[in-house]
Amino acid sequence: MYRCRAAVVWLGVAFCGGVSLADDTSVLLPPAVDTSELATASVATEILATDGVLPGAACCPPSLCCPNWDSYFLFDVLLLQRDNATNGQPLLLANSSGPLAGQTLLASTSPQFSTSPGIRTFFGRHGPDNIGWEIGYIGLYGMFGDAEAGGADLLTVTPPLGSSVTGWSRADYARATYASNLDMVQANLFRYDCCREQDRCSRYPWKRTPSCHCIDWIAGVVWAGLEENAALNVICCEGEQPTAYRNGTSSQMFGGQIGVRGRREWRDWAFEGWVKTALTGNQLSSWADPITSSLAPGVEFRPARANSTTTAGFIGDINMTAIYKLTDTWGLRMGYNLIWLSGVALAGNQYDFSDTPSSGQTLYGEGSVFFQGGSLGLEARW
What we know:
Distance between the termini: 28 Å
CATH architecture of the largest domain: Beta Barrel
Strand content: over 45%
Number of helices: 3
Low-confidence stretches: 1-60
Strand order of the largest sheet: 3-7-8-9-10-11-12-13-14-15
Order of helices and strands: EEHEEEEEEHEHEEEEEE
CATH superfamily of the largest domain: OPCA outer membrane adhesin/invasin
Number of strands: 15
CATH topology of the largest domain: Lipocalin
Radius of gyration: 30 Å
CATH class of the largest domain: Mainly Beta
Mean pLDDT: 85
């Protein structure tokens, strides 16, 4: 096995299967080994002397560099689904006129999100002294879920607020909607350790083929912005315009992150994965529109609200990706992704159906949200 820092070199100190190759390198070598490769012994010795890493393709034959690139760019299309881990606040009940009297018809957890698109892009470089850097962006757009219920004069918005707003205690139709967007930016430094690996004495051809693996130890800063909107739209009776209870939230997260990333390249394939975690300080804010009714023009049952607070938060990011090399530079990426945010303000948690002068003036900021799904993209390494 030929590894970084190993005591195996191609010159007189090399051993293969316990037999010295110093005296006659043309014998005892496995049939698959081309003895002409011994001409590159001085380069191989230099690779071993520098921990198996040389900074650029010009320093050695591409087959011996590990890796044979020092810059990279990737672009992935994300197809992720988010959960709805709100507090389950009842939004709509069956009123006493129907057979389901008192049962919850819609809750804050009722809207379920479909798979939504997004992007991820990174650019980075390996620098001297085994130190690299990268910058990246992740965006998830248009995440949306809804749920509805209907029944002529059979619906009531959760009291006591539902009993106070004209038309909300004997409604015909209601629809709950939930929408959100996520943006993330990060800048990282990393220490990379790379190794060229090959077992020339193996009976298996794939082990005699050189491979390169790298470990990156990452530290950096990250910002994430989660924007959400939730609404309960109510139609009291035929021919009337809907009235709504609308609210929204903004969670701005900033902090430091650490992580580890591994990559192994073998023939036309590469496999990559990372785990990153961040502790953040969060600036949270919420708002709510005035609550009115089309049956009582000019009456404001609750004025607009706006709240803000700060909390601590957490960001987790896990990725596993397989890459098929289309050319020496370009590769096709296929992966699976997990993203978790905690300490955020979820719009679905901000509904307040009490009916007092202070109602709607509390911001609930201990929510969490989880995204998971696939990715497909391209990368360039040169």
